[in-house]
């Protein structure tokens, strides 16, 4: 079996978002062999939706969780309420239906929203990769005012990446070996 | 210099603030507030103690000292419950609605408004429990299977209330928490001791990478979309508690929108109060700026006018509807024993907001503090005036009377303000009350706009043409 080339993860810290963007633009123009935008992660103190214009649209499945949760809430709500009402035939209904659809609609609506919200939160946790161990290749300056670019790169291509970082005035570079799973 | 100061005073935020300063100012606020903060904590604890004493007294002696009796079975408790539910709408308005409209001036102030939503709901929830009297039987309202046949009546709006408020509280807590995660990561990176452990746990591994931000943006938007109809439904259902009863003055179709408008109104007024206090306690003059205060005042004024209009609609529909008992109640509100409260409500709710039409007042925090408090006094009186006169003058003349709440009721209402104040003050000491990452975004985007304008002007001068395209490079926000 052929041995895989060892890989490293490189973190470059930039004082300016535009500098970080220029690095990615250069990578997009194939200035560094063996590195593509798919291997890049940007870490920033604020949200930069414009990143998607350069990195390309990446998947986000939160809305699917929301829809599933809301539908589940609606259906579960209908059955839960109907089951609760049908279970209590002792109560005098005064000629009214045992399962009252009109008033249940209000409660089903509330349960639809409740489960929609809960599922959205779960979707956020899953989609963001939260609740995992914090990456060691991180820097507190990212939560302050610096922008970080993390690139996965094979050992032989490390130097071109470093040069590219330096070309765009990187403040600091760190690296870490990626262990084979 | 004077010109520069004037320009800054007209801006929502000074775009020259460094990001590091935003972090340090907000983190400092969690360490060293002014003396007034500790005074407020002391006052809140004292008020809470009065409430606890009153509740313990009521628990031991029964509902008699509260003056609750037929026909006044739920006077002050339900009024105050509706008042606190109303207060909770502020967070939804500022966070969710203004988020959808991209009103970025909300960014420095939405966090405490969201916290206000959560704590108002937690305060409101106390009242139905206290009002039960036999609080030890509270679990009977939960739909669990029992051979005694304890099942709530799902046709009752009071059961709808339980569902709606539970959903709203859950959604509000999650909305507040999700919006805070990037800031909790900043706190984690700067804290030591128990605070570091708490923030590490609560920031759940936030690293600020593009995947997390992408999911965050989508989640926040979806939560806002869920929260807006939920907030409207909660107050509509609270309105249904009254409107579904065939009591004079309550059986009105305009009640749900009237309640929603009242809720937004009292929430906005409370935001002004807390804005002024937090700005002073934590020295947030650079973030909670006068232009933002001015915008909040304008919003409050607009909502006050909607509320006033809905009041007029309600009076007109009762007057021309020829429902005699409802008309009697309306006349009694204007001229009977409750008239000082009713006229006070109209003055505080419909006349006082006109002071917000003056720019000088909108930019005077210490004038706005008493005004906003009186607006909320008006809104509290509104709820009291919905409940008490109708119960006093219902369909059975032999039950007509004038009700004045007992000291226990007043004590518990007073204590609820202490409970809310204490929760809120603890929150702003432990968690960042200004959203650091959103203020950074605000600063970043403003700098970018100014830079692009300057580039465009320079380009126009150079080429001698107007309407030229701006150049692509932008300044950094740090």
Key traits:
heterodimer, A: 181 residues, alpha+beta, Alpha-Beta Plaits, 4-stranded antiparallel sheet, B: 478 residues, mainly alpha, Formate dehydrogenase/DMSO reductase fold, 2 domains, 71% helix
Summarize the structure.
Chain A has 181 residues and is α+β, with helices and mostly antiparallel strands.
Task: Chart the SSEs and their pairings.
The complex is a heterodimer of chains A (181) and B (478).
Chain A: E1 7-14, H1 17-28, E2 40-43, H2 51-55, H3 62-86, H4 101-128, E3 147-154, H5 158-167, E4 172-177
Antiparallel strand pairs in A: 1-3, 1-4, 2-3
Chain B: H1 2-10, H2 19-29, H3 35-61, H4 75-87, H5 89-100, H6 110-124, H7 126-131, H8 157-190, H9 193-202, H10 210-243, H11 255-281, H12 290-321, H13 324-335, H14 339-351, H15 359-362, H16 365-392, H17 407-430, H18 436-463
Helix pairs in contact in B: 2-18, 3-17, 4-6, 4-11, 4-16, 5-6, 5-10, 5-11, 6-8, 6-17, 8-9, 8-10, 10-11, 11-12, 11-16, 13-14, 14-16
């Amino acid at each position: 079996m052929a041995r895989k080339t060892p890989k490293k993860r490189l973190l470059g810290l930039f004082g300016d978002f535009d500098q970080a963007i220029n690095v990615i633009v250069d990578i997009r123009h194939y200035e560094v062999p063996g590195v593509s935008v798919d291997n890049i992660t940007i870490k920033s103190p604020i949200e930069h939706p414009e990143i998607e214009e350069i990195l390309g649209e990446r998947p986000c499945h939160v809305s699917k969780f929301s829809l599933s949760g809301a539908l589940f809430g609606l259906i579960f709500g209908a059955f839960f309420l109907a089951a609760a009402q049908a279970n209590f035939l002792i109560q005098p209904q005064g000629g009214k239906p045992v399962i009252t659809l009109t008033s249940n609609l209000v409660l089903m609506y509330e349960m639809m929203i409740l489960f929609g919200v809960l599922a959205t939160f779960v979707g956020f946790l899953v989609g963001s990769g939260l609740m995992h161990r914090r990456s060691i290749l991180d820097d507190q300056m990212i939560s302050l005012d610096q922008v970080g670019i993390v690139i996965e790169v094979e050992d032989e291509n490390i130097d071109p990446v470093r040069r590219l970082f330096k070309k765009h005035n990187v403040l600091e570079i760190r690296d870490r070996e990626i262990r084979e799973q | 210099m004077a010109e520069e100061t004037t320009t800054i005073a007209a801006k929502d935020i000074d775009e020259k603030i460094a990001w590091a300063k935003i972090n340090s100012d907000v983190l400092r606020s969690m360490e060293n507030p002014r003396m007034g903060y500790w005074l407020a904590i002391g006052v809140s604890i004292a008020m809470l103690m009065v409430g606890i004493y009153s509740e313990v007294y009521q628990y031991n002696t029964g509902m008699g000292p509260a003056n609750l009796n037929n026909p006044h079975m739920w006077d002050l408790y339900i009024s105050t419950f509706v008042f606190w539910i109303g207060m909770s709408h502020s967070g939804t308005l500022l966070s969710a609605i203004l988020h959808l409209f991209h009103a970025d001036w909300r960014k420095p102030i939405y966090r405490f408004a969201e916290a206000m939503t959560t704590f108002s709901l937690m305060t409101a929830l106390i009242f139905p429990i206290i009002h039960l009297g036999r609080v030890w039987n509270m679990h009977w309202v939960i739909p669990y299977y029992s051979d005694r046949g304890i099942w709530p009546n799902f046709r009752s709006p009071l059961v709808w209330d339980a569902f709606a408020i539970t959903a709203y509280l859950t959604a509000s807590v999650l909305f507040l928490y999700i919006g805070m995660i990037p800031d909790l990561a900043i706190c984690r990176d700067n804290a030591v001791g128990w605070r570091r452990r708490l923030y590490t746990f609560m920031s759940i591994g936030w690293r600020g990478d593009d995947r997390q931000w992408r999911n965050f943006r989508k989640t926040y938007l979806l939560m806002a979309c869920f929260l807006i109809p939920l907030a409207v439904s909660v107050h509509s259902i609270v309105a249904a508690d009254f409107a579904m009863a065939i009591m004079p003055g309550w059986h009105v179709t305009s009640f749900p929108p009237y309640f929603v408008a009242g809720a937004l109104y009292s929430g906005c007024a409370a935001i002004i109060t807390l804005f002024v206090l937090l700005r002073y306690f934590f020295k947030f003059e650079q973030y909670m700026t006068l232009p933002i205060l001015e915008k909040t005042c304008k919003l409050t004024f607009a909502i006050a006018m909607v509320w006033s209009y809905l009041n007029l609609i309600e009076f007109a529909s009762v007057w021309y509807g020829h429902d005699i008992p409802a008309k009697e109640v309306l006349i009694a509100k204007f001229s009977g024993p409750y008239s000082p409260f009713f006229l006070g409500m109209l003055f505080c709710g419909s006349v006082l907001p006109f002071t917000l039409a003056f720019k000088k007042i909108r930019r005077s925090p210490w004038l706005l503090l008493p005004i906003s408090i009186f607006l909320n006094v008006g809104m509290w009186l509104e709820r009291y005036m919905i409940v008490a006169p109708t119960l006093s003058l219902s369909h059975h003349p032999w039950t007509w009377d004038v009700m004045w709440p007992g000291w226990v009721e007043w004590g518990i209402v007073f204590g609820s303000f202490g409970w809310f104040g204490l929760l809120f003050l603890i929150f702003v000491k432990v968690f960042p009350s200004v959203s650091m990452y959103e203020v950074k975004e605000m600063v970043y985007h403003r700098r970018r706009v100014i830079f692009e304008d300057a580039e465009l002007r320079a380009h126009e001068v150079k080429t001698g043409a107007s309407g030229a395209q701006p150049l692509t490079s932008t300044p950094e926000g740090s």
